[in-house]
Structure formats: C-alpha cells, structure tokens
Amino acid sequence: MGWEVRRCGCLLLCLLLSVLAVSAKTHGNVANVLVNIINENRTAHKLPRLYNSSGLGCIALQYITGCMGNCSSNNTASCEPPEDDITEIFAPNCGVELPTVGIISGRLVGCQWKYLEPAEAFSNVLALNKKSLSILRDKKHTEVGVGVLGRHHGPFFWCILFSSGQTNFSFAIESGMGIKQKKGCFSGPDIPCSNILVEHKVNDDGFVYENFTKEV
C-alpha cells in the first residue's frame, strides 16, 4: 500500500514538473501556447512534432500586417500577400538571413472580432474543417511559426506558417541581430511577448481575470 502511495506521489510530481516546464516555456506568449496545441494535435495522430522556429514565427507576424483590414463581419480572413514579400519585406524586417529562407509548405490564417484563448482560436478559427486539418497534419512539415496581432476593438488575427526546410537552418536569424517587433506576438524558443498587455483584475467573487489589450 505504501509503495503504491509513493508511486502515485511520484507520478503526480512528474506531471506537475511537466506542467510547470511548459508554463515557464510559454508564459506571456500566446503564440507559443498555440504551437504546443498544434504539436499535441499532431502527436495524437502519430505525426512528429514541429520545430518552433523564431524566424518563421516572426514572418507569420509580418504576414498578418497585410491582413489587418481584411476580416469580414462573419470572421473570415481574406488576404494573401505576394510571395515576393516574404524575401523582400518580411525576412529583412525580422532579421532572417535571405539564403536561409525556406519553402512555406502550408499556411493557416484566421480572424475573429474578439480575443480568443489559444485553444479556442485553434478549434474555432484555425482548424475548422478537413482542409485546415489536412494542412496542419501534412507529413512534409518540419517547422512551424505562429503570429498573433489585433486591434483594440478588433479584429484579431492568427497566422500559422509551416515549412519543410531543414530544422535549425532555415529561417535563421542573423547573428547578433535578434528580432525586434513592436507589435503583436510571435512564437519561438525563449521568445516573450510583451505587446499584448494583460491587466489582472480581481472581481467581487475573488477570482482573477485577465483582460487583453490588443495593440497594433
């Protein structure tokens, strides 16, 4: 009996440490949370996890900037920036080395006139139908990047870019330059997001709620 209790305690401790590790890795960045959700969906279908690319994430955020005026009243995003913009505008803005710009093997763009938590955005905006899920679960993908951007009164955009490039080589950031984006959030290892301001308010019932201020 005592052995079983200790075993259960060990399992609970491991689970807690795992949750804390994920929380620390994604804290303050909803784009990284969405990457985790994407990878969980893929592994549930026995597909490999995708590398979380900072360069691709930044380009996904740049991609959204050309979409901000294109969200219909029924929450449909209709925009597709020219392919040349990736190498001529987006990559330079992100400090991505041009020789490392790889192939975009898939993209998902969605919008909503109110902020949604990453899980809701995934289910209700980005993975709505068989076509979207087919793109998400394509075996060619090796990397993923997510961008999130919105206005004070909407709309709010999510962009997922997939690449079939060589992991840790494609969409590489120029040495010593880093990425400086003043608006929105993008995914990547150790990339924080300070551009969606979170105001903590304690209601009369004692619970703490997070109110997102969307900036552009």
From TrEMBL:
Presence of keyword Signal: yes
Keywords: Signal
Highest taxon, organism lineage: Eukaryota
Signal sequence coordinates: 1-24
Protein name as catalogued: Uncharacterized protein
UniProt organism field: Colocasia esculenta (Wild taro)
